[in-house]
Amino acid sequence: MTEPPGGDAPPVLALRGVSKAFGAVQALRDVSLELFAGEAHALAGENGAGKSTLVKTLTGVYRPDTGQLLLDGEPVEFHSPADAQNAGVAVIYQEPTMFPDLSVAENIFIGRQPRAALRRIDRGAMHGRAAELFKRLGVALDPEQPARGLSIADQQLVEIAKALSRDARVLIMDEPTAALSGAEVTRLFNVVKALREQGCAVLFISHRLDEIFELCQRVTTLRDGTWIASEPVAGMTHDDLIRRMVGRDLDALYPKLDTVPGEVALKVHRLTREGVFTDVSFEVRRGEIVALAGLVGAGRSEVARAIFGVDRWDAGSVEVNGRGLPAASPTAAMSAGLALVPEDRRQQGLVMEQSIERNIGLTGLKNLRRGPVISRAAERDRARDWAIRLQLKFNRLSDAVNVLSGGNQQKVVLGKWLSTRPGVLIIDEPTRGIDVGTKAEVHRLLSELAADGLAVLMISSDLPEVLGMADRVLVMQEGRLVAEIPRDAATEESVMAAATGRAS
Amino acid sequence: MTAVTAGRGGRSLVDLVFRARELSIVAALVLLVAVTTGVNGNFLSGQGVKDIFLNASILVLLAVGQSFVIITKNIDLSVGSVVGLVAFTVGDFLAADHGRGIVFAVILGVAIGAVCGLANGLLVSFGRVPALVVTLGTLYVIQGLDHFIAHGRQINAVDLPPALLSMGNGGVLGIPYLPLIAVLVMVAAGYYLRSYASGRDFYAIGSSPEAARLAGLPVRRRVMTAYLLSGGLAGLAGVLWLARFGTVVADAAGGWELQVVSAVVVGGVAITGGVGSVYGAALGALLLTTITSALVVLKVDPFWQQAITGALLLLAISVDRLLALRVARILRRRNARHGS
Ligand SMILES: Nc1ncnc2c1ncn2[C@@H]1O[C@H](COP(=O)(O)OP(=O)(O)OP(=O)(O)O)[C@@H](O)[C@H]1O
Ligand SMILES: [Mg+2]
Q1: Fewest C-beta in 10 Å: which of A1, A417, A491, B94?
Q2: Whether the predicted model's global pTM rises above the 0.90 cut
Q3: Hey, is A146 helix, strand or coil?
Q4: CA gap A270, A276 in Å, rounded
Q5: What residues make up the domain containing B206?
Q6: Same domain (yes/no): A406, A450
Q7: Residues pairing with A271 in the sheet
Q8: B4 and A479: CB-CB below 8 Å?
Q9: Which of the listed residues A183, A212, A247 is the one where a domain comes to its end?
């Protein structure tokens, strides 16, 4: 092992020989981890490697089956999340944990609101402190607005503010950046770096390897619940890290096949939804992958939702294969051959209590019918087929989706929509929360489907993904389409410049 | 920065929706009173109004307790049985010796109610049995206990100390005690729920129990407290019931649990938890009581009273659902305005 960065001081928080099983699934196997004051420590591993399980044992959600937790070198037991919080551990969980009926500020301060005389809640101070946090993060959110209806990205920003507000000694972040774009990530990192310099210990999880290299000093890798290595980041390459995670070398990450675009499959003309997006026009041809880039909140997901008919539009038109779509009718959109993989997959894409095979089968019920009943066998076959293609990590196909790891839930949603064989696929953040290996697989799949004549509209905040996959890049800024950049001219600079409005 | 102003709009919209519920109950009340008085001028006679307020007070106390429970996404179906048990046992206790003080009677009643609430709370929060099942069970158990103690007997007003009866029907400065007590309890509960950190926990728990657990909130303790309050207030209501009616048989308030839940839901406390206020619940209780009285005055078959309560409940739930959908959509739309 390497020289601990903390000098002689014991690690603030450590795991020693921890194992944790869920029924037949061994999620963690004899794992050790040390977090020192003033270091940012990355935790890497594929989907289902056990990262979130490790986080939850550190924060008192799960009790380890064997092994122990050490706080400042002394063994401790966290019986509940409250115990961990009292010990100075703050955490951002992978899935947002919002109270939709409370205000944003209350979400941040629940249970420890600033008090005025007679221990009453000091609402003014609470809103003021929330506003301050948002300012530090550069976010325009109103502390007094209700949390219901926040986009995934805004929810994640509220979670970040919540964790920062605790002035913790240990800050644990499970994929905090998954829904954020470059600008937000940069600001988050600035805040986290400042905290780290003040002596906070940081545990950071992300499937975007660049972020690990930018933020962290050391990285611990897990594979199938087993500890692989803990080592300094300096001197490592992407490939080294991937090899640790996957256990082998990977093929090209963006295996884009060249295609000849066919006729226009999706035509969006002057689409407007008042106050949300304005005058958006573009076309997607068969065989083409068109990326929609921009900052969080630029209106990209909203355009997608309107095209698919989830929200209504106020003006403009949408045509699929030359035929106009009625506004606000997902049913019409689906029968015209449109598919939408939504951004908020937990809420809009999955029935969490149902099985994996059911969820994958949900959209294709027609094809699975044998007479009036749904064929169980056909459902299972199709689910198995897609589970293998997407390298889904699961115990049984009949398991409920909510026991899968975050990334594996994403894969189920992908499988569900890809298996409908649509003519036009709108996909919102196709690889959010998905590990590098599967990312390549998803990209290969999209590429193949496009080569077969599928028209793909891809919304992505992951710039390398946009640049690697897209035939054309459309950039949105503040609800307007501000640039269209062909593949050859698309660079990190040109896309970011258009997205932030610095050029053009 | 426009996002900030857009957010403000979202907030005032939500405020408006909640106030709208309270305002529309008030409007319904006014309309009901106007129509009924139009048909029968006696409806607004002094005694008529007093009766409505006296009857409503007991329902309001129960509704306030029930609000705590429903806000945490649970339910307490045992309150009707608790009222019956307390009314009878406390009556029995006072009838045995007129020298026993009223204060002591109130404390006894509240304590009996609190013990029932404690049993509910323990089973729901520690036993992890669904609240509907637990409190349906305790509804019958407490009812059975009541019948066992009563053994077919009846408490009569003449057996009770006059001081108790005057608490049920007397007042200060022309205002009867019962509504005073109810308003006091309501205001205290409303203030606590709004202005204290532990009060907000109830909303957080009902809004998302899982998130509440992860946030380190004392979920079980708060759910216990909610049942304790609901039970304790049902105990208080039981004593007041005895004071008001004097004559009590076993299971006097049988079936009231449904009235209470209806009042709370009609008053805007979402049955799915996390939303609503005790003021709304109290208004709901007042509305249901007024409907009952109006129907009597209008000489409508009592059968219709139940049907109307049911219809109102369905209306309230549908309105809640529709509003929730609309508000969610509007908020999403406003939030999407980011920076534009
Ligand atoms: N509550 C649970 N019940 C049963 N199995 C579970 C539960 N939570 C996690 N698992 C299983 O444990 C394994 C590890 O899951 P975990 O969520 O820790 O993965 P992860 O590394 O965070 O993956 P991802 O990158 O996809 O978020 C997975 O196989 C998952 O299915
Ligand atoms: Mg995870």
Answers
A1: A1
A2: no
A3: strand
A4: 13
A5: 17-338
A6: no
A7: A280
A8: no
A9: A247
CB of A431 closer than 6 angstroms to any ligand 1 atom: no
- Among A110, A137, A166, A476, the residue to mutate for chain B (most B Cβ within 10 A): A110
In a domain, A164, yes or no: yes
Compute the distance between CA of residue B171 and CA of residue B182 in angstroms, rounded to an integer. Answer: 13
Chain B: residue whose CA lies nearest to A300: B336
Q: Are residues A69 and A175 in the same domain?
A: yes
How many Å lie between the centroid of ligand 2 and the Cα of residue A174?
A: 7
A302–chain B nearest CA distance, Å: 7
Distance from the alpha carbon of residue A26 to the mean position of ligand 1, in angstroms: 10
Nearest to A139 by CA among A116, A159, A121: A159
Query: pLDDT by residue for chain A (504 residues), tens digit each?
Result: 444 555 678 999 999 999 999 988 899 999 999 999 999 999 999 888 999 999 999 999 999 999 999 999 999 999 999 999 999 999 999 888 899 999 999 999 998 999 998 889 999 999 999 999 999 888 888 999 889 888 888 888 899 899 989 888 999 999 998 888 777 888 889 989 998 998 999 999 999 889 999 999 999 999 989 999 999 999 999 888 988 888 766 666 666 777 788 899 999 999 999 888 999 999 999 999 999 998 877 889 899 999 999 888 999 999 999 899 998 888 899 889 898 888 777 666 777 778 888 888 766 555 555 555 666 777 778 788 888 887 888 888 888 888 888 788 888 888 888 777 788 999 998 888 888 888 888 888 888 889 888 999 999 988 888 998 999 999 998 889 999 999 989 888 888 888 887 644
Same domain, A268 and A366: no
Same domain, A181 and A52: yes
Quote the strand ranges of A216-263, DSSP E: 218-223, 226-232
Handedness of CA B58, B59, B61, B65 (dihedral sign): positive
Are A299 and B336 a contacting pair at CB < 8 A? yes
Is A127 a member of any domain? no
Q: Which residue of B has its CA nearest to A59?
A: B214
Closest residue in chain B to residue A56, using alpha carbons only: B214
Residue whose C-alpha is closest to residue B272's, from B216, B178, B205: B205
Sequence-separated (6 or more) residues with CB below 8 Å from residue A265:
A284, A285, A286, A320, A321, A423, A424, A455
Nearest by CB: B331 against A110, A115, A148: A148
User: What range defines the domain where residue A400 resides?
Assistant: 352-417
Same-domain status, A76 and A20: yes
Q: Which of B2, B206, B335 sits opposite A149 (nearest CB)?
A: B335
Number of domains observed in the structure of chain B: 1
A343 touches A301 (CB < 8 A): yes
Taking CB atoms and an 8 Å limit, are A140 and B210 in contact across chains?
no
Smallest Cβ–Cβ distance between B337 and the set A81, A115, A276 belongs to A276
Q: How many domains does chain A have?
A: 3
A355 DSSP assignment = B
Supply the CATH number for residue A51's domain.
Answer: 3.40.50.300
Same structural domain, A229 and A256: no
ipTM: 0.84
Residues A380, A406: one domain?
yes
Domain-embedded: residue A288: yes
Q: Is the CB of A409 under 6 A from ligand 1?
A: no
> CA–CA distance from A368 to each of A162, A272, A359, A365, A373 (Å)?
45, 38, 13, 5, 9
Q: Do both A437 and A456 map to the same domain?
A: yes
Query: Which numbered atom of ligand 1 lies nearest the CA of A393?
Result: 29
Specify if B299 maps to a domain: yes
B289 assigned to some structural domain: yes
Could you tell me how many CB contacts below 8 A there are between chain A and chain B?
A: 144
